[in-house]
Design goal:
Elements lengths: L2 H24 L5 E4 L2 E3 L6 E2 L1 E5 L2 E6 L1 H4 L8 E4 L4 E4 L1 E6 L1 H10 L2 E2 L8 H13 L7 E6 L12 H4 L8 E5 L4 E4 L1 H7 L11 E5 L5 E7 L16 H15 L2 E9 L1 H12 L6 E6 L4 H8 L12 E3 L2 E4 L30 H13 L4 E5 L2 H18 L7 E4 L5 H10 L2 E4 L3 H4 L1 H4 L4 H5 L5 H5 L4 E3 L10 H10 L17 H7 L2 H6 L17 E4 L16 E6 L2 E5 L5 E2 L2
Parallel strand pairs: 1-6, 2-7, 8-15, 9-10, 10-11, 15-16, 16-17, 18-19, 19-20, 20-21, 21-22
Antiparallel strand pairs: 1-4, 2-3, 4-5, 6-26, 7-23, 11-12, 12-14, 13-14, 23-24, 24-25
């Protein structure tokens, strides 16, 4: 029996053992009783009609008659009207703090489908320049060259005519490159003689001059130059995160590679009662010094409570597909045969940083998209696991974009968890084509993970793709690419039940929370959502259109709309 089978079987046996006595006589005086529903437990039994909750946890599940005795005069009884209930959904890879801060800053939204051409983006920059003081920065984000009419990167030549007196910085939707104008290059001291930093690229034209395109760590050359945020922006962003997540049925988020100010923002929002969802905060490691600083903090993965806690520590191994900087083995990018991407770390430095953090009790998660980067990370993980004699490290590979059979074998053997990205196939599947047909075949797989005993959890990587998890659930089943409608690697399609598992049970496991959440079972947290249709039986293409009617965390409703669900008392 492989580890996935054990992972599924043990909770089912526990649930069966716990639910019978609860219904037989110990289920009484519930705070909340759901009845007349279609409750998908992602556990055993798989479907029930009623669920009782007390003190924020699930008390019992069964049919309406079995749970009738759970109600007392004070119980909030909710008639679901046959609506479908699911465990609260979990997104293990987001950048929600940065995304919502962009909204609060009023940055230019250069994303699809709002924008379809460079000309439109340039026009928006020009309009912003007209109302901006000379020397002040103009910032925007979300543009995707593959969805622009011109099908190329934005350069300083595009931006200079409309913003001669204002530095401009426009971040690509991937987060792995940005475009700047000449004023920004001058402010950052970037010239034709500036060398590429380790793990980054300053793009040059045929004459050797910078084009204004900065990739990966080259973007950090702007550090300290961008406008300062108001002191409360992180706290306000955390509040907005909570609202946005609840609207789409996400009750737990992992926020990845965040700063100390952003951590403080979450804590301040929590103290004010603004944080309604659950969050795992993943601090950043960009250097060995960062790892040492983290190790000396005196806390590690798991510190906090069920609402807000530390998750894994995050590192980057390579770049992004959109920037054409993922680290791959030959052959290179189509049209760029010498481009094998970038590695952000020397192997020995990566292993040292991993070892320092893991020895201090931190779970590790490392961004690696290209196969060469994935192998570097797995080499490091294997050495750290062996040196520290770790038995259940649950180290994570973030993205694992080019996940070949050989890589999947290594991932399985090391017990590494993949933070996968099902919605990538739809939203950015066109990027895969730059890497050739063989890599398209193994780009962001799903079915083969199941076949090879690899545990995958799911993430949106917002704002690379929308926060709404139903895009990812649908994409995992359909695997259609946005622009052509082509099904990419159809043999990697999975069922709706398997797709839901990525966002429930597997998400909980990735965060060491499988005893608390990921399914609806007695003793687990009462985190659940009510949706507008039976997701197990609708046509595949309806999955992306699912609407969340209510979201509940710890037995408390945090989001709701008029739905036909009613409180009986």
């Amino acid at each position: 029996m492989n580890r996935l089978s054990v992972f599924v079987l043990i909770p089912i046996l526990l649930a069966c053992a716990m639910s019978a006595p609860a219904i037989a006589g110990t289920c009484m005086d519930a705070d909340l009783l759901l009845r007349n529903g279609h409750i998908v437990t992602m556990d055993s039994p798989p479907i029930v009609t009623a669920m009782a909750v007390r003190a924020g946890k699930i008390l019992a599940l069964g049919n309406d008659a079995e749970l009738a005795s759970c109600a007392s005069s004070r119980t909030n009884v909710v008639d679901l009207g046959k609506r479908t209930v699911l465990p609260g959904l979990i997104d293990v890879h987001t950048h929600v703090m940065e995304w919502t801060k962009g909204i609060l800053r009023g940055q230019i939204d250069a994303g699809y489908p709002k924008v379809h051409s460079i000309a439109e983006i340039v026009n928006a920059v020009g309009e912003r320049a007209k109302t901006s003081a000379a020397g002040s920065w103009i910032v925007g984000s979300g543009w995707d060259d593959s969805k622009l009419a011109e099908h190329r990167y934005i350069t300083r030549q595009d931006l200079d005519p409309v913003s001669p007196n204002n530095p401009v910085y426009l971040v690509h939707v991937s987060g792995h490159l940005g475009s700047v104008n000449s004023a920004a290059l001058k402010a950052a001291g970037i010239t034709k003689d500036t060398l590429d930093p380790q793990g980054g690229v300053i793009e040059h034209d045929h004459s050797g001059e910078p084009t204004g395109v900065l990739k990966d760590t080259a973007m950090e050359l702007l550090a300290g130059l961008l406008p300062k945020d108001p002191p409360d922006i992180d706290m306000r962003a955390a509040k907005l995160i909570s609202e946005k997540a609840a609207e789409v049925g996400l009750t737990t988020l992992h926020d990845i590679f965040i700063s100390s100010d952003e951590m403080r923002g979450y804590q301040d929002a929590y103290a004010r009662g603004w944080l309604k969802i659950r969050v795992q905060m993943s601090p950043q490691i960009g250097s060995i010094a960062d790892a040492e600083k983290l190790a000396h903090m005196g806390v590690h993965t798991g510190f906090g409570d069920d609402r807000l806690k530390f998750g894994a520590a995050k590192m980057f191994a390579d770049g992004g597909m959109g920037a054409r900087t993922i680290a791959i083995y030959p052959p290179g990018v189509i049209g760029e045969p010498n481009n094998l991407g970038v590695l952000r770390w020397k192997p020995e430095d990566m292993q040292k940083a991993h070892l320092i953090a893991a020895a201090a009790g931190w779970q590790l998660e490392t961004h690696a998209i290209g196969d060469r980067a994935i192998d570097e990370v797995l080499d490091s993980y294997a050495a750290v696991i062996k040196q520290l004699n770790l038995k259940d490290a649950r180290f994570r590979i973030v993205h694992a974009g080019i996940s070949t059979p050989a890589i999947q074998k290594r991932v399985h053997e090391l017990g590494v968890v993949v933070d996968g990205n099902p919605p990538f196939v739809y939203w950015i599947g066109s990027w895969f084509q730059k890497y050739g047909a063989e890599r398209v075949r193994w780009a962001y797989p799903a079915r083969s993970y199941l076949d090879n005993g690899v545990l995958e959890a799911a993430g949106s990587d917002v704002d690379v793709t929308p926060l709404n998890p139903w895009w990812g659930i649908w994409a995992a089943v359909a695997r259609k690419e946005l622009q052509t409608g082509q099904v990419l690697a159809p043999e990697e399609r999975i069922t709706i039940e398997q797709a839901l598992t990525l966002y429930t049970r597997n998400g909980a496991y990735a965060g060491f929370e499988e005893r608390l959440k990921g399914s609806l079972a007695p003793g687990k947290l009462a985190d659940f959502v009510v949706v507008d249709r039976d997701v197990l039986s609708v046509p595949t293409d309806e999955l992306k259109d699912v609407e969340v009617l209510q979201s509940w965390v710890g037995g408390q409703q945090i989001y709701g709309k008029s739905s036909g669900v009613r409180n009986d008392q």
